[in-house]
Amino acid sequence: MEWRSIFKNIFGNNSNxxxxxxxxEIEIIDGRxxxxxxxxxDFVNDPDVITCVDTIARNAAKMxxxxxxxxxxxxxxxxxxxxxxxxxxxNELQNAYKFYYQVVSNxxxxxxxxxxxxxxxxxxxxxxxxxxxxxxxxxxxxxxxWVKFKFGRKKERFVPxxxxxxxxxxxxxxxxxxxxxxxxxxxLSFKHVLDEGIIxxxxxTQSIRGILKSTKSILxxxxxxxxRDQFVKDFMDADxxxxxxxxxxxxxxxxxxxxxxxxxxxxAKSIDNKILSYxxxxxxIIQSKYNEDEWNAFYESVLEPIGIQMSLEFTDKxxxxxxxxxxxxxxxxxxxxxYASNKTKIEILRYGGNIFYVDELREVFNxxxxxxxxxxxxxxxxxxxxxxxxxxxxxxxEEGDEENEGEGN
Length: 409
Known about the structure:
The chain is α+β, with helices and mostly antiparallel strands.
């Protein structure tokens, strides 16, 4: 009942969410259908994959979305309902951190992440919902692109693609959907073989292997089996806690030495590196022991592309063409200086006063903003003040020269 009520709250029960019979499924250039699914192997339960995705998602979820507009040629930050939806409470179930964590997790698990933009009858934004669908197909209807989502086995919804924020990774040849997870599944299949080999090797070395020989006259097959079973019971029975068994003089046991082959450390490391490379990570980022340069590389190669793609998609799908013409956009900011070394922070504090607000400098050191807007000031050092005075005096001299020229004429 809870899921049905949430489903109804997102899509409603009106006929606009059901596929019209006149819609036609879109074919891409090579004749294939544009379809994206959520499953290709059990990689979502692999601990190494979960660790990689979590590392990216929890850092990307810390980026701060801002609603900007262009007012009289100047960019300004808006504090409105749209800002509240994108930066604080996207929907009634999630705060912004949980929302973006799920959005980015879906992107790196499945190479596709869909957010449904819910609107009221006046086309006003009323919610943003990350969709957990099993399959999506693109259709053409009334000259526009639509998407039919399948949820589980029975539920389907047909919605305009313009109401879907769509993030992709490893774009497929059609450019509409993200790439396949087959490369990841292939690497994980190698990893599974290595893990199974280690487990089997441990089991093998903990087992007794050998041949029982009897000096008695030729035994019947059933007697041989009985002798073997008795030996196994003596050594392997759970009640035999000592692990010691006994044989009479007519029976001997010749152990067989087994040396199971397992992957070398280099081979296992190679598989781990392939998984890390697939997600653009390294061990230091995973284990949170990175230095400033490693963090900057991680930000620029992994987090920043996510922020850019989200900025473009959120702007395109949330605002109307008129609003976009007036400079309305969503950007995702991240304070990279929080991850700088103490030496870099001190240098910024010494020389950055002329371009940073006081509150921005305090944020670098994880300090709260000053009250009553006192931190929204830029402290200008004496050298810059002198330069400004020189510029002002030059302007006054130029005005005086123009006046003198006018008098001479």
